[in-house]
């Protein structure tokens, strides 16, 4: 029988549940290359950590989906730690995005075999929603590091565009290697920069302001121009 990892209940060491999630994730990374990213792997990882089925259901109610989320967020944190040593303001925006995406790709490559299994799991139709959500989370953190402070529609458009780059870039990195992924990212960043140039000076808020004006007039009984 595998020994249960010794986890202190000292509050100064953080929440027990959070620490156990990471301990189970560590076990999962070792098992996924052989078992795949699935419920069988989750049960085996929990057993390796001394958790009963009931404990597993409490800790990871969504099973492999929860572990996929934990892995993606670990990779986000790893990428941000790497980027923390870089002064984003010293770089042009295209360089910031290239650095950010590269750091995120290499963060996942450190767990390459397990990450491949997780990526295949997220590519399944029942899990596509989670894959998109996690890509958005990653894009949000990378844009924040890059210095984006937009709070209008640009906040969402930038993250949507970067999510659209991240998903295929990460897939290329996991299955085709770094060179193919970096070439793809370089080409797509040109698209991002072209979009930024195109939208410069355009008043995208105008339609929303017009709608708000019409609704205000209706609310207060003012005449609406024909």
Report on the architecture of this protein.
- The protein is mainly α and 226 residues long.
- Helices cover 73% and strands 0% of the residues.
- It is built from ten helices and no strands.
- The longest helix has 24 residues.
- The termini are far apart.
- The relative contact order is 0.09.
Number of strands: 0
Q: Overall pLDDT, averaged?
A: 86
Structural class, from secondary structure content?
A: mainly alpha
What is the number of helices?
10
Low-confidence runs: 1-13
Order of helices and strands: HHHHHHHHHH
Put the structure in a nutshell.
The chain is mostly helical and 226 residues long. 73% of the residues lie in helices and 0% in strands.
Task: Please write out the topology.
Blueprint: H1 16-35, H2 39-48, H3 53-59, H4 64-83, H5 93-109, H6 112-123, H7 128-145, H8 153-176, H9 178-199, H10 206-220
Helix pairs in contact: 1-2, 1-6, 4-5, 4-7, 5-7, 5-8, 5-9, 7-8, 8-9
Question: What keywords describe this structure?
Answer:
mainly alpha; disordered N terminus; elongated; 73% helix
